[in-house]
Amino acid sequence: xxxxxxxxxxTFGISRTxxxxxxxxGALSLLSLYLGFDAYLSDHPARASLxxxxxxxxxxxxxxxxxxxxxxxxxIFSIPQVEVVTTLECKTCGLxxxxxxxxxxxxxxxxxxxxxxxGKMNIVKIYGRERAKAR
Amino acid sequence: xxxxxxxxxxxxxxxxxxxxxxxxxxxxxxxxxLVFFIYLFYAQRIQTMMMLKxxxxxxxxxxxxxxxxxxxxxxAVREVGKPKEDPAPRIDQILEQFxxxxxxxxxxxxxxxxxxxxxxxxxxxxEDVRTIAPEANEWEIHNLENLLEAAMALNSIYKIxxxxxxxxxxxxxxxxxxxxxxxxPMILQEVxxxxxxxxxxxxxxxxxxxxxxxxxxxxxxxxxWRTIAKDTVVAEVPFEGRTLLVVKAKGPxxxxxxxxxxxxxxxxxxxGKVSKIIMIDAAAKLEGEELGSIAEGVGxxxxxxxxxxxKIEEVALKYNLPLYAIAIKEDIKDxxxxxKEAIFNGAEKAVEAVKRFVRERTAEGEVIIVVxxxxxxxxxx
Lengths: 135, 381
Ligand SMILES: [Zn+2]
Description:
Shape of chain B: elongated
Helix content of chain A: 40-55%
Number of domains of chain B: 2
Number of strands of chain B: 7
Number of helices of chain A: 3
Strand content of chain B: 5-15%
Largest sheet of chain B: 7 strands, mixed
Helix content of chain B: 55-70%
Number of helices of chain B: 10
Radius of gyration of chain B: 28 Å
Distance between the termini of chain B: 75 Å
CATH architecture of the largest domain in chain B: 3-Layer(aba) Sandwich
Bound molecules: zinc ion
Shape of chain A: rod-shaped
Largest interface: A-B, 38 and 48 residues
Strand order of the largest sheet of chain A: 2-1-4-3
Number of domains of chain A: 2
CATH superfamily of the largest domain in chain B: Peptidyl-tRNA hydrolase
Largest sheet of chain A: 4 strands, antiparallel
Strand order of the largest sheet of chain B: 1-2-3-7-4-6-5
CATH class of the largest domain in chain B: Alpha Beta
Oligomer: heterodimer
Order of helices and strands of chain B: HHHHHHHEEEHEEHEHE
């Protein structure tokens, strides 16, 4: 199975065919730009702008392709991890405590000892926090 | 077919766009026209290739997540179960397990057949997990089961998408590829949900689906409970002169229990002397609805294959009991992810809604069954 997998996914990032195509388009675009400047200098503004347009759109296409294949790779390994927090409350004195979730925690469990009155603390709330987004 | 003369005309027009000035200009004109021609005849093929590329990108991502699922499951089994031999081959075998649903050509009685098959599958799955994780305690076994189930789902989604990708690549058929490409956003959303389930079930945190179970747990906390059906518990809670029979799956392991059997057993135990059934469950919210908001309605609020829903509807019909429902709204991606605070608060609102319902719509002395539906991972009672 793994052998077949490899033949099915030759592309990790940019494949050779795509690279050749990009190089070809790049060369064409460069040529267009050259012709455009040439025409501009020899007083053919209409032709010049057409060539320049072709050249710049070629480069834009290359940029777009690069951007796209990069973003695909970046998205692959983003498996969401949520920050989970546990809230505890003391039965006797009502002291509240929030700490990161630990494996083995569950709702209503008598978990930690109260720091104020040495009583038992119950887990009253467990929830995943949305990771704060950069604004 | 007037495609060809049209094409020739367009070719001429395209040629006129760049009147040749020198040799380089001529070359450019030829290349330009050539590109134009290629696009004219191969546009669909190019489109097909672009779509294939998109599907391939998604497939790569799916594969990474599938592999992560297997890795996480394997690690959890090793840590929690402390097996003597390497569990990897057994886990690979479990990931490929399947279930064949009964024939429904003659649908009468098909639910009981499905129930039987589901039970066999559950028992077998539990045995398998016990074998690979001999040291795990009861609720850790349930969490491992759920974890493996998430890994199984990821594996099968990956394999189905791979199937269509390879088929599309072989045939270069636009419509085969289009089918996958169109459903990809939804599939990726589902996969994202399952991948967050990996975290929830390895650590044993409550999940969004557990909102219903949480409501039941909050009502029954501090009262004596007993087992009423497989993996399902009930507590008798006196409330303002009424008696609430609160049902939930047995926590804190990952479990949905058998609410259908529980409700039937409870009603039969009391000889039908029950006045109402209230069910609380997490429900898929529509885009634009608020996360954790609650809604009230009627009917059996329970998802899954439909077996438990059928049992509850049958017994409600037999004893002529009204079914009321309270839904806690959440997104598909929240269902198996660690429970968000908004959903937790939604469950608190639902507890109040249950109390208000009982006060307003029942008389003193009545017996009401309250069923908290959902996976009770991380929620005790
Ligand atoms: Zn205290």
